Amino acid sequence: MTNSILIFPLLFLFAPIALTTCSLTLDNPSFPLTQAKDMIRDFNLFPERTVNVVEGGLRESFGDKKLVEKKFMFPGFVDTSGAASVDELGHHAGYYQIEHSHDAKMFYFFFESRGRKTDPVVIWLTGGPGCSSELALFYENGPFKIEKNSSLSWNEYGWDQASNLLFVDQPTGTGFSYTSDKRDIRHDEQGISDDLYDFLQAFFKEHPEYAKNDFFITGESYAGHYIPAFAARVNQGNKAKEGIHINLKGFAIGNGLTDPLVQYKAYTDYALDMGIITESDHKNINKRVPVCETAIKLCGTDGTTACMAAYLACNTIFSSIKSIAGNINHYDIRKQCEGSLCYDFSNMEDLLSKQSVKEALGVGDIDFVSCSPVVYQAMIMDWMRNLEAGIPHLLEDGIKLLVYAGEYDLICNWLGNSRWVHAMEWSGQKAFGATADVPFKVDGSEAGLFKTHGPLSFLKVHDAGHMVPMDQPKAALSMLKRWMKGSLSENAAELESIATSM
Prior knowledge:
This protein is α/β, with parallel strands linked by helices. It has a single domain (31-501), classed as Alpha/Beta hydrolase fold, catalytic domain (Rossmann fold). It is built from 18 helices and 13 strands. It has helices at residues 31-42, 134-141, 189-206, 223-240, 260-265, 267-273, 279-285, 289-302, 305-325, 346-353, 355-361, 373-378, 391-396, 414-423, 429-434, 468-471, 473-485, 490-501; strands at 67-71, 91-97, 105-111, 121-125, 144-146, 152-154, 164-168, 215-220, 248-254, 400-406, 438-442, 445-453, 456-461. Strands 1-2-3-7-4-8-9-10-13-12-11 form an 11-stranded mixed β-sheet, sandwiched between helices. Strand 11 (438-442) and strand 12 (445-453) form a beta hairpin. Helix 8 (289-302) packs antiparallel against helix 9. The longest helix has 21 residues, at 305-325. It is found in: Secreted. Keywords: Carboxypeptidase, Disulfide bond, Glycoprotein, Hydrolase, Protease, Secreted, Signal. This is Carboxypeptidase. It is an enzyme of class 3 (hydrolase).
């Protein structure tokens, strides 16, 4: 939730504000771009291109086709597990031209389920804003794990074990997604959710065999903004019978930024609880909270300049904590950042920049943009908007929501997420609040605490930071399987498994 959420998930993420080098004034247009670049360096990512706006489009012409899709196999991949080949498993990569855009082409990976084709379709959105979903694909919940030499091996806890899995590079300009028209760079959730809706319409038109499957939206970090807006857009399209009906059953937000007004106020409490700051620090930093609150409220009504003011004012809360904490990894407070970097995801960038890989994926001359500072900056006015506001309507329509968070993440901490979930006004608010936390068990061991009432669930994941599927892959896969089937309880999952085998 601060100025560099990626997103990572995913990324997620937030980079701390350097108050000693950046002037907190509205007449400093380079400020958000500077913070975006800091965020990218936190992940040891150094994309050559800052955004994929390509004059004349892709040099390899695809004519008038709206779809460019091919089955692919990563060069050099060797399967030592005895599993089916990559080709047999139906791995796809390609582009869809976004219908209601000027010239946007959105890139994606699609991995058919290792179980059944009737398994749910799950889409994953990484945050940033402006970070590629390949971050999650290779380091969190995709079919592969990337090794230090940029080779690939199977991920036994990939979410394709239980779903037909989509990873999308969005917003346009991120990853391999591109446009020839700068007007396709989005500045708000309306534009982003409309593009994603058009993407899904194109996907299900090309793959009608999956259109009747249950559909779930998932993601991480700044996707706490994307996901509720996208879910609402799908629900709206279904009700209006705009196109192909999408069988939306639920949406899940991992360590996300959703309601800034609640979540920024939780920073100091979380930091105090975890021993990052002292009581005196807590009292002093909290003096900044009223200004942050006022600015966020003005952003919600006036927009534009007020939203920039909120971005600047509120992020001083986080940067103050960071200045006290020192070299702590704000994605996982158990760790120190390695040098000036918190993680090293450069192997992914190396892999996707290889010409042989680009040829296998069919991306032509497009460069891979791991995280785009241009997309990040374009979304600054969106940062402090409250995306919780549309969620109650979805819950009342019976669409499930799971909010989960690793307990050691500072940037989008579990406490702030828990507070906005509990504060959300809907018909089940009181009953949800009165529901007791119960252990989330995996193979008999406690992996977290959760509560559920009706369509709403909240899960605090033990021994995990910002990227839950990376830190606790087995628990994350169990979470997905159980939630999609209707209950996070291990006992319920066992009964389901028995019933399925009979």
